[in-house]
Write a structure and sequence with these properties.
- The protein is α+β, with helices and mostly antiparallel strands.
- It is 49% helix and 9% strand.
- It has one domain (15-29, 43-412): Cytochrome p450, CATH 1.10.630.10.
- The protein has a five-stranded mixed sheet with strand order 3-4-9-6-5. A two-stranded antiparallel sheet has the order 1-2. It has a two-stranded antiparallel sheet with strand order 7-8.
- Helix 11 packs parallel to helix 15.
- The longest helix has 32 residues, at 241-272.
- The protein is globular.
- The model is unreliable at 6-24 (pLDDT under 50).
- Bound molecules: protoporphyrin IX containing FE.
- Protoporphyrin IX containing FE binds next to helix 5, helix 11 and helix 15.
């Protein structure tokens, strides 16, 4: 740890207005120069707001969502590991709105354990190893095909998203090209369910998309190739068919876009910084790089919990019943834990990052991400040694606060040789 926060009261910077969401905490007030949560300026760059909150109001009663926002690393990690902060309570509104099935993500305690344990057969390291040879071939085929596109490829839509679909297709044991196209369409459609503050039309679109995907899974599950991780999951006697579908829907909703975003950030960082590119090209010798990019980017920037009883975090107390937004994106930029927190530092291995969560709900896709994202980035740079960006300016972020995505970049696979100046 390089620096430490000055001690501050949990709600410093807040007024003494009535409690947020019945939590009894004072409603937060931000100084005029700090963009409020959910404002366009916050979406474009949440950094200044989060930095101010970390310093002055680390447990902040956000007036619009009426949630308590936790922004420091030590509080976020403690919150994610605290048994009184319920994921089921935190997810209940979103699950009801999106029509998402009951899954490990929206359950706690023994229910959560029962749903999570068998999913290791699909997502654990042994399962991931068993599909890796075919998966690598899938990724390479897509990367090789990029030169045949009529236009220079877009890093996100032509590279990262198709590769993310290929990862999930292999996980779901889908070989048929038409079914892979359908999976890609479902992946795009269900993203609306991630919107934390949807209007009624968006909420309806989310429900429709989820229902269509669940129907698609009926087809996928009628004919699962033997010997695959999915076949092992389906054969598990402790899971019902609906619960298997729940696992697969989590992978699609929670995995597709963040995987693509993580790859986009990694490649973009490599194109901007020769030290990062060198680490990407080192491939297996640079396993820490994807962790550093995940720390810096944090594609899933926050997770929600509800307090089932009152509890203490290092910076203050959380009352019973409060909805809590654990801002892991902010925790990952906390200067008390990470030096040069706002930079991608190529050599850093940030073991303490929270981009994949912590505690009982730690991301089950971790083994898959760690096996595939670095190798996809490596393959892209190794296949196109002259890879360059068409328009690499300063980092900008797509609007929308969840998931969080770097603005995409046009890739030049074979730049024309420079004309010597006369
Ligand atoms: C870079 C990409 C990814 C990021 C940043 C990410 C991040 C996260 C985070 C932060 C959580 C914890 C949520 C919480 O505590 O409420 C989580 C949970 C989960 N993730 Fe990921 N994820 C990624 C990719 C994936 C992929 C590719 C899959 C599967 C194919 C996956 C499967 C899951 C599952 C099943 C859970 C629920 C675990 C539980 O509730 O016990 N994730 N992920």
């Amino acid at each position: 740890m390089s620096t430490s926060h000055e001690t501050s009261a949990p709600s410093a910077g807040n007024s003494t207005a009535p409690g947020a969401g019945g939590s009894g905490m004072p409603i937060g007030r931000l100084p005029a120069h700090v963009p409020p949560f959910f404002s366009p300026a916050f979406a474009a760059d949440p950094g200044p707001t989060l930095a101010w909150l970390r310093e002055n109001s680390p447990i902040y009663a956000e007036p619009f969502s009426r949630m308590l926002v936790v922004t420091r690393h030590e509080d976020s990690e403690a919150a994610l590991r605290h048994p009184a902060l319920s994921a089921a309570g935190g997810q209940s509104d979103r699950s009801a709105r999106s029509g998402a099935p009951v899954t490990m993500l929206n359950t706690d305690g023994p229910d959560h354990d029962r749903l999570r344990r068998p999913a290791g057969q699909l997502l654990g390291p042994t399962a991931v190893r068993s599909i890796s040879t075919d998966l690598e071939a899938d990724l390479q085929a897509i990367i090789d095909g990029l030169v045949d596109l009529a236009e220079p490829p877009d890093l996100l839509t032509d590279v990262a998203e198709p590769l993310s679909t290929a990862v999930l297709a292999r996980l779901f044991a889908i070989e048929d090209p038409q079914a892979r196209v359908a999976l890609d369409a479902h992946a795009r459609a269900v993203q609306v369910t991630l919107n934390p503050v949807p209007d009624p039309r968006t909420a309806q679109a989310g429900q429709d998309a989820m229902a269509a995907f669940i129907e698609f899974l009926d087809e996928v599950l009628t004919d699962v190739p033997e010997g695959t991780p999915l076949a092992a999951l389906v054969a598990d006697p402790t899971l019902s068919r609906d619960e298997v579908k729940g696992v697969l829907s989590l992978c699609l909703v929670g995995g597709w876009s963040p995987w693509a975003d993580a790859l986009t950030s990694t490649v973009r960082a490599a194109l901007a910084d020769p030290a990062v590119a060198e680490r990407v090209l080192a491939g297996a010798q640079a396993p820490g790089l994807v962790e550093e990019v995940l720390r810096w980017h944090t594609p899933i920037p926050f997770v929600a919990r509800r307090a089932t009883s009152s509890l203490d975090l290092p910076s203050g107390s959380i009352p019973q019943g409060a909805m809590v937004l654990v801002h892991i994106g902010s925790a990952n930029r906390d200067g008390a834990v990470f030096e040069q927190a706002d930079e991608v530092v190529a050599q850093r291995i940030p073991r303490e990052h929270l981009a994949l969560g912590s505690g009982a709900h730690f991301c089950m896709g971790a083994a898959l991400i760690r096996a595939t994202a670095p190798s996809a980035a490596h393959r892209l740079l190794a296949t196109y040694p002259d890879l360059a960006a068409g328009d690499l300016g300063p980092v900008t972020w797509r609007t929308g606060i969840f998931p969080r995505s770097v603005e995409s970049t046009t890739l030049l696979l074979a730049p024309s040789p420079e004309v010597p100046s006369t």
